[in-house]
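Example 3.2
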Amino acid sequence: ITAAAEAWARGAAALPKPWKPQKPVLPVEGMRNVLITSALPYVNNVPHLGNIIGCVLSADTFARYCRLRNWNTLYVCGTDEYGTATETKAVEEGLTPQEICNKYNAIHADIYRWFDISFDYFGRTTTPHQTTIAQDIFQRLLARGFLLQDTVEQLRCENCQRFLADRFVEGTCPFCSYEEARGDQCDKCGKLINAVELKNPQCKLCRSVPVVKPTQHLFLDLPKLEERLEPWLEQSWATGDWTANARYITRSWIRDGLKPRCITRDLKWGTPVPLDGFRDKVFYVWFDAPIGYLSITANYTDQWERWWKNPQQ
């Protein structure tokens, strides 16, 4: 408080000159470099106040604070555009998935401009950089033995002539009996679900009852990482600022034992899987979407790795 009073008494003339970063904003040797991302808003809706307050506004406030501190700051965001939610919205509106993405990306960008959110760059995930980086990460996982191939039982709608991705199927949760559980997770009890575990499943497109059929998929071999993950988590919990909710959810996953997680889907709208035998599939959106932070930065600057692979700065 004393320091603040003294600074106030000295007046604005004594303040350090505002830092004006070059464009594009890149890490600077000897400065505090801060990369800020907002959680990527999904593209199939119009943002409301809850989205803005809970996501982009808090990050915007922090970005403005960092700039006032004369920290070299880059703030990026963009729309998350792949996955079944986009396909579902496209069916509802009679448009193609790309048309849906183009329509709602523009709406999102306009709303954030209206609120004067201070993004340095607002992008999207349906770009060539997204494909290149996601496929590169996939190839690295494959080369290091972190992927499994397996036949899985999956729900198929004979009426629609398609395997049903998670959001195209709805039913009763096998754990808590919530009647509107999705094919990947129950929004009531929070448990992860395989779609074939749902009771009374229905195709969300035509409301017919799907049948169970086998299909080949690729899985992230999470159990192989468990021994390395646990000590890292213990250290991170001790030194980091994890929320109570994040700690609880992560601990529950570790306590129950990590399971292989499917990273491919029988869809058309997504990043293609670059592997023979799987080229008619795309990456599951929760494998693909977090890579959007990297690809959006790559669309902002071809020197994106200076932000994402540069722990010294």
